[in-house]
Amino acid sequence: AEDGYDLWLRYRTPATTSSALKIEARGDTPTLRAAGEELRRSNFFATKAPTILLATATDRDVAALRLPLAALGDEGYRVGYVTLGNRRTLLVTGNTDRGVLYGSFALLRHLQTGGSLDRIDLTSTPRVKLRVLNHWDNLDGVVERGYAGASLWDWWTLPDFRDPRYTDYARANASIGINGTVLNNVNAKADSLTAPYIAKAAALADVFRPYGIKVYLSARFSAPIELGGLKTADPLDPQVAAWWKAKTDEIYRSIPDFGGFLVKANSEGQPGPRDYHRTHADGANMLAAAVAPHGGIVMWRAFVYAETDPEDRAKQAYTEFKPLDGKFASNVIVQVKNGAIDFQPREPFHPLFGAMPKTPLMIEFQITKEYLGFATHLAYLGPMFAETLGSETMQTPGETVAKVVDGSVEHHTLTGMAGVANIGRDRDWAGSTFNQANWYAFGRMAWDPTLGAAPVAREWAAMTFAPSPKIVDPVVAMMMGSREAVVDYMTPLGLAHVMATGHHYGPGPWVANLKRPEWNPVYYHRADKAGIGFDRTKTGSDAIAQYSPALARQLANPATTPERELLWFHHVAWDRRMASGRTLWAEMVGDYDQGVGYVASMRRQWDALKPSIDSARWTKTATYLAVQQREAQWWRDASLAYWMSVNGLPIPAGTAAPA
Ligand code: GCU
Prior knowledge:
Blueprint: E1 22-25, H1 30-40, E2 51-56, H2 60-64, E3 77-84, E4 87-94, H3 97-112, E5 121-124, E6 130-134, H4 164-175, E7 180-182, H5 195-208, E8 214-218, H6 223-226, H7 238-254, E9 260-263, H8 280-291, E10 297-301, H9 313-321, E11 332-337, E12 361-366, H10 382-389, H11 401-405, E13 416-420, H12 433-447, H13 453-464, H14 469-490, H15 521-525, E14 531-532, H16 549-555, H17 566-569, E15 572-573, H18 584-608, H19 615-647
Parallel strand pairs: 1-2, 2-4, 6-7, 6-13, 7-8, 8-9, 9-10, 10-11, 11-12, 12-13
Antiparallel strand pairs: 3-4, 3-5, 14-15
Helix pairs in contact: 1-3, 7-8, 10-13, 12-13, 13-14, 14-18, 18-19
The chain binds alpha-D-glucopyranuronic acid.
C-alpha cells in the first residue's frame, strides 16, 4: 500500500525491471555508487535502456568532449547525450562525484515529471552554497515544534545500528540538493558534545557522506562550564578558547568533514557571550577560530530578543547585530530568520537583509509549521519562501533578499539557506503528504531561489502523484493559495503572533497575562476601541527606520504600505478605507471568511481527485482537510468574537457566513 514513505522518489521497482540498463561509472567511489544505485531503482529505462555514463570532468573521455563544464563549480551537473566511440551515450557529469549524483537525481526528476528519454539537456549549478536542514531534535527523542513523530535519530541504538532509514533520508535530501544537516536542537544540551554523542553523530555522518551531506551540531555556549568544569564560558578567556579548540579537534578526529557549529546564544534563556559583556562577534569568532584549521564554519543565529529590553521585539536583532557588521571572522555566517519576529504566516522580510553588507547572512525558514497549523493544515510554503526571497530591500537598485542571500550583491562566497526541518519518525516523514512538499520546496529553492513556487509545486505534484495534468493542475491550484488562506483565517492584513500560548495552535488574540509582555498577543495587535495594529513608524517604535531609506519612506505612510503588511507597521482606525472600498473592519471580516472558503474549496478539489489518488494518501489528506476546515472556522469565529468585544462593531452585512 502507498504510505508516503517514498516521498517524491516514487520509482522504486522490483529489482528485475532495470536489468537491461547499462550504467558505467568511471571510478568506484561511494558517491558514484549511490548515483548508479539510484538510477537502477527506477523503471524508466526498462524498455528502452540507453547506455548511461557517470563520470566527472576529469575522465579522459569526458575531457575529450571539451564541454564547458568549468562553470558548473563543484556541485553543478550536466546531463545530456554525447557520442563516445560512435555510441550514443547519456552522459551524467560534473566536476565532482557530487555533481554526478545531483545530475542523476535531475535525470530522474526529468523523467518523473514527464520529460522525454530522447531529449535530455539538463544543466544546473546551485546559487547558494550551504543548503542546510536544522533539526530541532532533542537527545531524548522529542522534536521541538515537531509534528511528525519522534526524532529520526535513534540515539539509543546509534552508533552501532545504522537504520536503513538514515540512507533514505540522505537520498531524499540529495535529490533536492540539501548538503548539510544540523542534527540537534538549537536549544542545545551540552551532552551532544560528549564523546558518546560525537560517536553517534559520526555514524550518521558516515551514512550521509556519500550523498554529499555534511553533519553540523548545535553547540551550547556554556559547554566549557558544564562539560569542562571551567568557571566561565567567557569567549575571551584563553582557557575557554582552548577548551573549544580541543573539543573541536576531538570532533574532527571522528568526523573529518564535520561542517561546524550552529549557535543560539543569548536568546530565550540560552547562554551566550552577552553573559560576560562580550559581543556576539566575540562569541562567534572564538568558535570560528576553533573550526577554521579544519575548514569548518560557524552559523551564528541573530534570533535574539531580551526579557529586560523594552524595545519593540521586532527591532532587537538589528539593534544588536548591525553594529557588528564587518566584525565577524571570515568563516562565520550570521543566520537570520526570514522575518523579524518569529516564523509567522506572513512577515515582512527581516531588516538585517541588506543592512550588513560586510557579513554573510544565511536566511532561516521554518519548514515545520509551528504557526501555520502544525501537520494537519495544508499550507504550501513555496509562495512564502518566494515572497521573502523576492522582496526588494531597496538598499541598491534591484537588490532583493535572494541576492543578499546568494551573495551576488555583496560579493560573498559563503552563502546559505537553513530550513527548520519538519521531519520525524512518522511513516510519511513529515506528518502529511502535503508537508513533504515544504521539505521539497525548501531544498529546491535553496539550490535556486529564483525557481518560483508554482514550477516547484508542479514538479513535486508530478513526482508525488503522477505527471498527468489531470492531477497536477488541481493539486498545484490547491497548493498555491493554501498559505494565503492560512494568513487569511489566522493573521490577515499584517497581524502576527495572535496564536494560543506556548504551543501556538489555535487562536489566542485575547491573551494578555503572560509574564513577558512580548509573549502576549495583545502586545502585537494593540487593538483598542479606535483601531488595530502595531505602530512601527516614528510615532511608535520606529522599526521602519531599520529598512533602507527608500523603503522606510514607503512604509512610513499607511497609504503606501502594502495592505497585506498594514497592521504590522501601522495602528489604523477600524473604519479606514481600504483599496477595495471596504472599511478595514469589513476587509478583515472578509479575509477571515475567504480563508475558510478556500479550505472548503480545497476539500472539493480533493474530493474530485479521489479516483486518481491511492486510497491511503487520499484518505489521510481528506481527513486533515476536514480538520482544517473546522479549525479555520474556529480561528475566524473566535478572532471575530474577540475583535467585536474590543471594537463594538457588528459583522458587516454579507460576510462571515455562520459556521
Ligand atoms: C520559536 C520557537 C521556539 C524556538 C525558537 C528559536 O520561538 O517557538 O521553540 O526555540 O523559535 O528559533 O530558537
